[in-house]
């Protein structure tokens, strides 16, 4: 089988350049296209030269249709509105769509799920092996530790430029905890506390968000019981771990029937 041709959207950004390097370094994959927003000064430049891997002969474009038509898959760490648009294009072209975008609304997710009826989509709040293993452990711990005895708090910190909160990873971990407790996260999450909040609701899952500096991503899930705390944590030190996971997901998805999958499917967790 020939190398899988992958398109990187947002190719000029930090994550986009990291993805180009990851694809270039992965056997079985190659950069077949690169996209940027209309008006970007990087349009027309060579994607490989911009990412520091040398000339690839892939010119950054602002027109997704011909780029998608010539590819086997697209990797997308952009914004919710852009991701929904790209999901439609990927469905039309019947190419794999790997989504690392966070901050999607339920309406966005419904449109992505509709696109997955026509193509293979892997969507995750975090593409790293470590975080997805952490989520599996959180689910087990939440199932084993009774809600009456252990309170759950999800703490996360990211760099000052991150625009959504809680992070996609924090929500992924919160969903894992909710599955372990057999409850709906939407009905049992506490996103903020200010003023006279009263006692902590039994069985709720709390979220605390920190932003600052250049932190790539730090997440902890605390199980606080009487006289003890159990803390499960993950610290991301390099964006390449997310990029590597996304490329792994693309290769896994190639040739599969249409559907909406997660990194837990990719990793067999």
Describe the structure.
This protein is α/β, with parallel strands linked by helices. Helices cover 37% and strands 25% of the residues. The chain has 10 helices and 12 strands. The chain has helices spanning 14-25, 47-51, 64-69, 80-93, 106-115, 129-144, 168-181, 185-188, 240-253, 263-267, and strands at 4-9, 29-35, 60-61, 73-76, 96-99, 120-123, 150-158, 189-190, 205-211, 217-225, 228-236, 259-261. The strands form 2 sheets. Strands 3-2-1-4-5-6-12 form a 7-stranded parallel beta sheet, sandwiched between helices. Strand 4, helix 4 and strand 5 (96-99) form a beta-alpha-beta unit. Helix 4 (80-93) packs parallel to helix 5 and helix 6 (129-144) runs parallel beside helix 7 (168-181). The mean pLDDT is 95.
Strands, total number: 12
Number of helices: 10
Q: How much helix is in the residues? A: 25-40%
What's the SSE pattern?
A: EHEHEHEHEHEHEHHEEEEHEH
* Overall radius of gyration: 19 Å
Overall pLDDT score: 95
Shape label: elongated
Which class do the helix and strand fractions yield? alpha/beta
Q: Order of strands across the biggest sheet? A: 3-2-1-4-5-6-12
| Distance from first to last alpha carbon | 27 Å
As an assembly, this protein is single chain
Q: What is the strand content?
A: 15-25%
Q: What would a concise description of this structure say?
A:
With 269 residues, the chain is an alpha/beta fold. It has helices at residues 14-25, 47-51, 64-69, 80-93, 106-115, 129-144, 168-181, 185-188, 240-253, 263-267; strands at residues 4-9, 29-35, 60-61, 73-76, 96-99, 120-123, 150-158, 189-190, 205-211, 217-225, 228-236, 259-261. It starts with a strand and ends with a helix.
């Amino acid at each position: 089988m020939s190398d899988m041709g992958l398109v990187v959207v947002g190719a000029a950004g930090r994550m986009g350049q990291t993805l180009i390097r990851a694809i270039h370094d992965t056997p079985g994959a190659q950069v077949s296209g690169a996209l940027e927003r209309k008006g970007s000064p990087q349009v027309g430049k060579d994607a490989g030269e911009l990412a520091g891997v040398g000339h690839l002969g892939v010119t950054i474009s602002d027109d997704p249709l011909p780029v998608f038509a010539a590819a086997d898959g697209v990797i997308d760490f952009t914004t919710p509105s852009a991701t929904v648009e790209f999901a439609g294009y990927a469905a039309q072209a019947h190419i794999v769509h790997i989504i690392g975008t966070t901050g999607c609304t339920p309406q966005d997710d419904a449109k992505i799920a509709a696109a997955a009826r026509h193509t293979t989509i892997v969507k995750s709040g975090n593409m790293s092996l470590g975080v997805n293993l952490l989520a599996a452990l959180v689910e087990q711990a939440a199932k084993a530790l009774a809600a009456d005895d252990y309170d759950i708090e999800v703490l996360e910190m990211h760099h000052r430029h991150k625009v959504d909160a809680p992070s996609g990873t924090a929500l992924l971990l919160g969903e894992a905890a909710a599955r372990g407790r057999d409850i709906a996260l939407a009905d049992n999450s506490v996103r903020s506390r200010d003023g006279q909040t009263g006692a902590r609701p039994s069985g709720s899952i709390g979220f605390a968000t920190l932003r600052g500096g250049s932190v790539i991503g730090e997440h902890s899930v605390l199980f606080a019981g009487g006289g003890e705390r159990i803390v499960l944590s993950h610290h991301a030190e390099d964006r390449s771990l997310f990029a590597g996971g996304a490329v792994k997901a693309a290769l896994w998805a190639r040739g599969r029937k249409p559907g909406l999958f997660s990194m837990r499917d990719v990793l067999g967790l």
